[in-house]
Design goal:
Its EC number is 2.7.1.36. Its main location: cytoplasm. This is mevalonate kinase. It is found in: Cytoplasm. By secondary structure, the chain is an alpha+beta fold. The protein has two domains: 181 residues, Ribosomal Protein S5, domain 2 (2-Layer Sandwich), CATH 3.30.230.10; 145 residues, Alpha-Beta Plaits (2-Layer Sandwich). Helices cover 43% and strands 22% of the residues. Strands 1, 2, 3, 4, 5 and 6 form a six-stranded mixed beta sheet that branches. Strands 8-9-7-10 form a four-stranded antiparallel beta sheet. Helix 9 runs antiparallel to helix 10.
Length: 337
């Protein structure tokens, strides 16, 4: 008996392409890490130069293959085995959710290739970006038009596998065109009134978002009122940071970043390496600097006047940064409109 083609399996009313392609990018949290999990707002920016592309296509089935879903994931580059295993566990569930949600039929002999330049475990949204790229690749493969809300819901399912309780800010920001204000599942564009840059520095040590979230939860539960105090302080800084960004008050915005770093560091979420990068950025002329992302490793973000970008970047590498990226605020704000 001849095996039906993927197009035939999908049904006569459904057109299936030979290959589907989806794309996403990294993100950085400017203010609001961790507190966003408790319903507080977060301010985030896309990092478009760190992109990921997923390609989904059909491979020939081998004789004796079972009739069940068979999705093969391949990741380019040389990520570590634990990272690949964790990423593929969430993405495997994601493909199943896609078929059930949109009646796509069986995903027999589907090959998904993920080509990404987002370093893993750095608080830059790699898992959410992979998930978004795969969702869009599957939608393209099946010629389905998904709403933003449908894409978000699918990516969020994968994020909950990767991080436990996920706020949704990563699932949103990896598809954002410009800076966003995120709270309780809703995102709004943010006005940018300054020409400053964000410089992101990779400490070289992978963060552990899931562990960091659990560690903070236990710490806040250990003292009455601690959760209220943390969330209130974070919320005030995030609101003030958004206002300063809109008004172009870069000195004030920088101060809020550094204050937020102290808040996270005081909660045990920073590391010696991250603290050294923050100190180096400030010494080199940054207006403010902080950890970005889940913590316990990962990246640092600094607000830098354009004329100081080279100086700050050099100092960060001298202080141990293994990679740096520059995100021009005005450029991404203009791109988002």
């Amino acid at each position: 008996m001849t095996r039906p083609s993927p197009a035939e399996e999908a049904g006569p009313a459904r057109r299936v392409r030979a290959v589907g392609v989806g794309r996403a990018h990294a993100k950085a949290i400017v203010l609001g890490e961790h507190a966003v999990v408790y319903g507080a707002p977060a301010l985030a920016v896309p990092v478009p130069q760190l992109a990921v592309t997923a390609s989904a296509g059909w491979s020939a089935g081998e004789p004796g293959d079972s009739d069940g879903d068979q999705v093969t994931f391949t990741m380019t580059g040389s990520p570590s085995r634990p990272i690949v295993t964790q990423a593929f566990a969430g993405l495997g569930l994601l493909t199943g959710h896609f078929t059930r949600a949109f009646g796509a039929g069986a995903l027999r002999h589907l090959d998904v290739i993920i080509d990404g330049g987002i370093p893993h475990g750095r608080g830059l949204g790699s898992s959410a970006a992979y998930a978004r790229a795969v969702v869009l690749a599957l939608a393209d493969l099946y010629d389905r038009q998904l709403s933003d809300r449908e894409v978000f819901a699918l990516v969020q399912r994968a994020e909950d596998v990767a991080h436990g309780r996920s706020s949704g800010v990563d699932a949103t920001a990896v598809g954002a065109r410009g800076p966003i204000w995120f709270q309780a599942g809703t995102a709004q564009p943010v006005r940018v009134g300054c020409e400053a840059l964000f410089v992101i520095a990779d400490s070289g040590t992978a963060g552990r978002t899931k562990d960091a979230v659990q560690q903070l939860r236990e710490r806040l539960a250990a003292r009455p009122g601690a959760e209220h105090d943390f969330v209130t302080a974070a919320t005030d800084l995030t609101h003030a940071g958004r206002d300063a960004l809109a008004r172009g008050e870069t000195d004030r915005l920088g101060g809020y970043l550094t204050h937020y770093h102290r808040l996270l560091s005081g909660a045990g979420l920073s590391t010696t390496g991250i603290d050294a990068l923050v100190a180096a950025a400030l010494d080199a002329g940054s207006l403010g600097a902080k950890i970005t992302g889940g913590g316990l490793g990962g990246c640092m973000l600094a607000l830098v006047p354009p004329v100081k970008a080279g100086q700050v970047t050099r100092r960060l590498h001298q202080a141990g940064a293994v990679q740096t990226w520059v995100v021009p605020l005005r450029e991404i704000a203009d791109h988002g409109h």
